[in-house]
From TrEMBL:
Taxonomic placement: Bacteria, Bacillati, Bacillota, Bacilli, Lactobacillales
Catalytic activity, reaction form: (6S)-5-formyl-5,6,7,8-tetrahydrofolate + ATP = (6R)-5,10-methenyltetrahydrofolate + ADP + phosphate
Organism: Oenococcus sicerae
Residues reported in the UniProt entry to bind ATP: 7-11, 133-141
InterPro entries: FTHF_cligase, FTHF_cligase-like_sf, NagB/RpiA_transferase-like
EC number(s) from the headed UniProt entry: 6.3.3.2
Protein name (database record): 5-formyltetrahydrofolate cyclo-ligase
An example Gene Ontology molecular-function term: 5-formyltetrahydrofolate cyclo-ligase activity
Main EC class the enzyme belongs to: ligase
Cofactor: Mg(2+)
Family: Belongs to the 5-formyltetrahydrofolate cyclo-ligase family.
Pfam families for the chain: 5-FTHF_cyc-lig
Amino acid sequence: MPMNDEKQQLRIQQKDRLTKLDPSKKKAESLSLYKQLFTSDLWQQAQTITVTLNLPIELDTQPIIQQAWELDKTVLIPKIIQKKMIFTEFEETTRLVEGNMHILEAVTSNEFPKEQIDLMIVPGLAFTKPGKRLGFGAGFYDRYLADFTGQTLSLSLNDQLLEQLPSDRLDVRIKQILTPED
């Protein structure tokens, strides 16, 4: 099976699996992941973080955003402009609009400098412990991360953690994957 077909098939399976995830199991795993994130050196040292405004099947990112604001961290969210991903500052007063792939994004297009981002919390449908990631298929994060020099981290629910993932030369590995068991 060609690589793109294999990835697409896996995306469909993962979306289905995450849609059917027991809410209490998801909540327990999420709490474990938040605790690990908030006590990690990466989090504590980062002044500027990126995070997505999650889709329903994903880990809820609101607790991460709230904790960052309480610690006076700068929170950035992705925005797609002409097939390119940038990050814009996100505050409680930020006006949002539904953007690409039904993800909420800021109305503003003020791009935050990539080199000033300390920690990117990278979303995905599936991960491996060594840092492979299966995204949603548009390639936005892989292109953005290709020359990103800061830290990257993903939070993986147990149902997102796989032994192996198909990958190609354009796929960028995540430096650290947190799982509920860690």
